[in-house]
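Board notes (copied after class):
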Amino acid sequence: MLKISIFLTVLVAFVATSRIVLDKTRSLGFQSVQQHADDPNPNGPSTSESSEEHETEEIKEEEYKEEEEEAGGEKEEEELEEEIEDDDEIEKVSLLESIDDVTKEFRNIRTNAEESTEEVETFQHAPSLKRSISRLDDMIYRANPELQEMLKRTLEDTDMIDGDIKLDEESAAELVRFYEENPQYLSLNLNGTRGMPQNDLGKRKIEQSSRSKWNLPIKYTIKDSKSRAVIKNAIRIWQEETCIRFQERTSVTPPGIIFRGDSSGCWSYIGKRASAANIINLGNGCQTMGIALHEIGHALGFYHEQARPDRDEYVTILSQNINPDKLKNFLIKPSSKTYSTLYDYGSIMHYRDEAFAKSSGLKTIKAKQPDYERTMGQRTALSFYDVKAMNYYYCQNKCTGGLSSSKCRNGGYKDPNNCNKCKCPEGYYGTSCVAVGPSRPLSTSCGQRYLSALKNYESLRSPGYTCDGYTTEAECSWRIRAPAGKRVRLYFRGTFDIACTKRCLDFVEVRLSRFAATGPRFCCSNRPTKFFTSTGSTMLVLFRTYSGLKKKGFEARYRYV
């Protein structure tokens, strides 16, 4: 029993790994980081107050002449599907289960502690793990002597690290080494500011350890028949968008991926594991395309988007609204790389704004650019930057000279599946990513439109706006261009009626610059009341409908300024 007691003591210390950063920050503070160099004006260009006031009066006068908008008497339809609060919120993953060399022994100990003295001895003689735990324990108590109570509380939630990520022994050791060598990263301020040397690690997204990168093709097997169709479709999408290839087997030996569906939620390890198969678990409520894409992203090497070291330039973590036992899920991950992709509010790896909240309705993540609140947390599709980062990680050698190409405009790059083509951001296509579209259904009212901003306002409407409303699965794109030296200004007016779901499955999106990055998205019936002004002479407007619900849509007005 003494050995068992020692084991449990060690377990408590190790489980607290993800608490280190959070508690130390309560005694330390740093200055805000510099604004991202690639986005010198993230809040959009300023406009003169007199110009906006004058236009506001014009709009008010114009809207006064319109017919009174319909009252909201129609009861809002129920959402097509009851989405889980967040795939990460229901995920339960054991930290110690991920330690490759002691997984079997640990599981036996948990179920048969009294009969497992031999297994306890085996666990105690894992020297690298013991050293990591000892150093972590020392760091914890140097950081904050008041952690004992939190450790007790954490023990009740031993199965989470960043919500849906398992941590193996080598990863734990790397984390210890990193924080010992870079103590400045222990000074994370969850309330929004933190200091960070600008030459440290860069802006990162993908696990950088060479041991985590897969050799292709990746072997996998599916143990859960209920999820088979979803898994196969998610794999198909990753293969279509990247050079990554998967190969199904009846069974796999490491390295490989085993898809299963037990009751422990939605989770995966980060990257390849050398000595054991990588498990991707899709439990009840997890068998959706978006969650499958998300978890495969983890297995390929992705961390969560808001775990990037530059995240505090873009979001504020509202720690006071987070369930205390889930604070560790908001840690910044040090050893990752983004391959020159900017922070992406629309990444399929980003938490939504209420993730791990103490109670329903509380925000836990606040976008520093408020227009991006409804962009965060989408689980509809891989974003352009999700795909680009993965291609730059795995596929650079597929094209002569790498994937970068001056031929591919608007943030595009060589398609690793066809090096003679460009991989274009959403809303653009063609040989050089300058053509607008493609659009579905293709019609004069559904995008693939080249609009010119003139001196006076012109109208832009979603398809069906003046009659029966928009169709489902519409994909409409409009490019609005102002004369040289001018910018595009746009505002919404009249009825604004877009299906309202937690993750904005239907939305209108406005891109003012950075056309490769996901822009502000809007849904529901709350019409945006501000002016949108492009950074340059071009603005991109996207309209997508994936909910299956039919609503009236939107009308916008635009001109040059």
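Comment from the instructor: The two ends are 77 Å apart (CA to CA). The first strand starts at residue 165 and ends at 166.
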